Amino acid sequence: MLLALKQSRLCKTSAIIRRKSISGEASSVLSENLSCHKWWLADGFRSFSSGSLKLQSRGEDFEQFGLKFDSITSTPPKNARVVICGGGIMGAAVAYQLAQRGWGPHTVLIEKGRIGEGNPWHFSGLLGELKPTYSQVLLAQTSLDLIKEFDQKGLPTGWKQTGSLNLARTRDRMTMFRRMKSSSVSWNVECELVSPERCKELCPIIETDDLVGGLWIPNDGIGNPNAFCQSLVKESLDKGVSVVENCPITKIVQQDGRVKAVETVNGAVECVYFVNCAGFWARQVGQLSEPYVKVPLHAAEHYYLHTKPMYELTSSIPVVRDLDGHIYFRENNGCLLAGGFETKAKPAYEDGEVPSNIAERKLHADWDHFHPLLEQLLYRIPNLKNATLERLSNCPEAFSPDCKWIIGEAPEIQNYLVAAGMKTIGMSAAAGVGRAIADIITQGYSTVDLHELDISRFLGLHNNRKFLRDRVREVPGLHYDLNYPFYEFRTGRNLRMSPIFPALKEAGAVFSQVMGYERPAWFDKKNSLDEKGIPKFRIASTDGFGKPHWFENVQNEYEACREQIGLSDYSTFTKIDLWSKGREVVDLLQYLCSNDIDQPVGSIIHTGMHNRHGGYENDCSLARLSENHYMMIAPTVQQARCKAWIDRHLPSGGRVSVSDVTSMYTAICIMGPFTRIMLSELTDTDLSPKNFPFFTCKELDVGLANGIRALNLTHTGELGYVLYIPNEFALHVYTKLMEAGQKYGIKHCGYYAMRTLRVEKFFAFWGQDLDTFTTPLECGRMWRVKFDKGVNFIGRDALLAQRDKGVERMYIQLLINDHDPEIDLWSWGGEPIYRNGVYCGQTTTTAYGFTFKKQICLGFVKNLDFKGKPLPVTNEYVLSGDYEVEIAGVRYPAKANLHSPNLPTKFPDKEREAYKATRDKPDDTNLLAYSKS
Questions:
Q1: Are 96 and 147 in contact (CB under 8 A)?
Q2: What pLDDT, on a 0 to 100 scale, did the predictor assign at position 918?
Q3: Phi/psi at 486 (nearest 5 deg)?
Q4: DSSP letter assigned to residue 64
Q5: Which residues of 762-775 are buried (b: 16+ CB within 10 A; e: fewer)?
Q6: pLDDT (tens digit, 9 = 90+) per residue, 572-627?
Q7: 748 near 520, Cβ under 8 Å?
Q8: Long-range CB contacts (< 8 A, 24+ apart) of 27-35?
Q9: To which H or E segment does residue 543 belong?
Q10: How would you write 568-608 as a 3-class SS string?
């Protein structure tokens, strides 16, 4: 096919190809004169070059890799400890990792079809270790290590180290590569920024005239998922795993909220654990239990282009990803294998039912849909126009709503685990994810922090079929998209809205979304109306890595919160009521929480809920409404996760009641020095510090509304209140607040201003700074841990041991110097930190501090010896170092703070200054001496 072929002719020809393929004709001619080059579209499984895979008889599936299995059956045993559903690469990896821990004889791997039955035309086999986050990198590195280990043992994996070359067409893409290169130091990934000339040397077949550079990762490679799957199965069988095929699962039975048994067409298996590794059937398998487990996945069509052998290709050609063109390609036994991630994907099986039969599951190639990717391939590989093409394969691939993997224990049923949503890179993830699942089963926790991948990050709304169908059009394109800060999805919007949403939209809100909730990011009245004068729904965006276009809007909102009154919608926060007839709820929370929650009625207790290692499973505030009734306020992203954590530890007999009341209350936060005066005008309750002190709660009447739970805190360190208002009163209370606040200069404020306020005040947030491996000792919160409260709370022993031993990392605040926010790239989180020129840690949350007039980074620092081994970190160690933060390859000097700074204000207040995010600081002096540093 010629590069000059017009789109209209290509589309017409594509229709011819599609018709001929459907009718069973083996080939069609596609070229400028429709006579030059053959595009083979045979339906059968056929080898297109020597060494390619075949799928013929059952025996050949294994024998092609030199493997012979005699112990695979179709009848499952009566009993097992673990049942794994899905005989693909993920299920095989879980089985193997369990077998490695001695659980082989207690594990059953069940497949409804044949083990490892994969179409050899339907995989790319790309293996890379540089992923978006550290947890994903660790899982990928574990997978690569096992693949290499198998390869050295002579077990088939298809492993070949080719390196991968990522191309940049724009400056922003190159900035992204520089950020990745900086992060690679933290993640122990070898990579190199390269010029267009070097790109041409690494891959001579590509066009480079439009490139600005690239990122070379030499240790990446390719593999064969089918071969690796078979090798995993062989090793699992050798270690006692029972493998069952042609045995569809019909039901997962639970008893008292725990997995009890698995029913199949060939008999039932009593078990303790069930692992759903069913790939794009995982959602359907989730519906085989009562209650059903929500596994939000939807399949999208994904294309693989195969050529006949090309003489230009050599085995040294690396994997190439042209991210701006949304394409990738690799050499495959002298042929070219190519694909991509289109900006608007095409859902597969839109009725939500994935056929179980291979023949029915087959998707026909849509050449018109693939055309934009084909154009990019022809441009990037000029000689492709002379190639003879073997086929275009259309393979369904499952994607989660946020384009991340789905791992962990289901919140609906205990001991029900899920490992799914691996997109097109299952081989890259399989062994690492399998190890994490095996760790959870055998030791109760994963050695890798999985909170960002945990299945409990989703709610029921994310499992809605229509929502998934719409979202899957958007998600695949994100795989290669530019990763600008604070990305917002365009689909699935206007889903969860507080009652004051229309008023906020009218006030100029620009919205972000979290857990399906619309939340104002900032406010801007300009261009807020459509052509009919109706307020528009606008989605937040940050289209760059430097100073954002919303800077001035957020600055004005920040200043209102500091010196006047700011009003913010806090409705997204997780709200859970816990109560009991007797003291059962007190005893439960004392066991779950490290702080002493047995405080007087009206108290607010900020506390962590920890795992056995002292890490944060939750970070929350508990308002004691009565002797045996608490309201828990937790991060938005914890809505499903923290309730599941509580449910796992509930006493038997229903003695403690737990209710998610997130959707029952609208939360409005008012903050600033005039909030007490303004609120006093709307309520009869005495709001003086003596009657309603800081960090307490009361039930108030506001305006004409009653039953409002008022908390005297703001989660940012500023003076103010959060009002939890029954939804029917929300619009009334909002209106009264806005009317009363006019004379005090009240302004609407969005989430970005809240973020800046808390970063300046050194407040850590769960999911951004705190995770399941972070302890209170590491982040200056030891004063909230009450070892002497008389209860052996979860994590107590680990925290005591860490207190005696000392911490190996410490949470600090860094003020960046010699940085011009107008022209320099900004810190957005994840940047490496250097102490005395040596790498020592990584940033977590960042913001521009409008009081400091500097970029501020929060993050953790370590004390690493010359071998990279962590040593104890002390206050003296932190304060004695000279620090730098590397932003996209440029290092900026930074001043370190260990504790919450005192920020100057026109209206100083004892309450505001008394409360700090950290305690026991050695000295307050010079914390604001940044201008001299």
A1: no
A2: 60
A3: 60, 45
A4: T
A5: bbbbbbbbbbbbbb
A6: 999 999 999 999 999 999 999 999 999 999 999 999 999 999 999 999 999 999 99
A7: yes
A8: 30/1, 30/389, 31/1, 31/2, 31/5, 32/1, 32/2, 32/4, 32/5
A9: none
A10: EECCCCEEEEEECCCCHHHHHHHHHECCCCCCCCCEEEEEE
Residue that the structure tokens 């070359």 belong to = 165
**What is the CB-side half-sphere exposure of residue 436 using CA atoms within 13 A?**
28
**DSSP bridge pairs for 512:** 519
Residue 748's nearest CA partner among 882, 558, 902, 495 is: 558
6-15, 535-544, 712-721: range with lowest mean pLDDT? 6-15
**Cβ-proximal residues to 198 (8 Å cutoff; 6+ apart), any chain:** 214, 216
Q: Which residues pair with 574 in a beta bridge?
A: 634
Residue 482 to residue 48: CA distance in whole angstroms: 35
| Pair 388, 38: CB distance under 8 Å | yes
Structural contact between residues 858 and 762, judged by C-beta atoms closer than 8 angstroms: yes
Chain centroid, CA 345 distance in Å: 20
The CA distance from 735 to 742, in Å, is 11
Q: Which helix (H) or strand (E) holds 269?
A: strand 267-270
Structure tokens at 461: 């709304």
> Quick one: 59 exposed, middle or buried, by C-beta within 10 A (0-12, 13-18, 19+)?
exposed
How many Cα atoms sit within 13 Å of 338 on the Cβ side? 28
Amino acid at position 334, single letter: G
Enter the tokens of residue 255: 């008893």
> Is 760 within 8 Å of 851 (Cβ atoms)?
yes
The percent of residues above 70 in pLDDT, for the chain, comes to: 89
Strands (DSSP E) along 507-563, which ranges? 509-514, 517-523
SS3 of 705-716: the string is EEEEEEECCCCC
DSSP state of 496: B
**Structure tokens given for 109:** 């791997």
In angstroms, the CA 231 to CA 592 distance is: 43
Q: How many Cβ atoms are within 10 Å of 853's Cβ, its own excluded? A: 11
Please name the residue that has the structure tokens 């290499």: 148
Measured in degrees and rounded to the nearest 5, phi and psi for residue 661 equal -110, 20
User: How far is Cα 139 from Cα 431, in angstroms, rounded to an integer?
Assistant: 7
Two structure tokens written together for 295: 């596994």
The values of phi and psi at residue 169, to 5°, are -95, -20
Paired with 606 in beta bridges are 621
Tokens at residue 763, please?
A: 């407040």
Per the document, the length of the chain is: 933
CB neighbour list of residue 703: distance below 8 Å, 6 or more residues apart? 682, 732, 733, 735, 736
Tens of pLDDT, residue by residue over 680-733, are 999 999 999 999 999 999 999 999 999 999 999 998 988 999 999 999 999 999
Nearest to 629 by CA among 696, 662, 693, 581: 581
Q: In what order do the strands lie in the sheet with 258-264?
A: 249-255, 258-264, 267-270
Q: Is 86 left (phi over 0), alpha (psi -120 to 50) or beta?
A: left
Report residue 561 as tokens: 């919160």
Count Cβ atoms within 10 A of the Cβ of residue 170 and give its class: 0-12 exposed, 13-18 middle, 19 or more buried.
middle
pLDDT digits (tens, 9 = 90+) for 61-116: 545 555 555 678 889 999 999 999 999 999 999 999 999 999 999 999 999 988 87
Strand partners, 567: 670, 748
Cα distances from 830 to residues 134, 182, 813, 818, 887, in angstroms, run 9, 9, 14, 20, 9
Q: Of 848, 843, 840, whose CA–CA distance to 831 is shortest?
A: 843
Write down the residue that tokens 């501090």 correspond to. Answer: 849
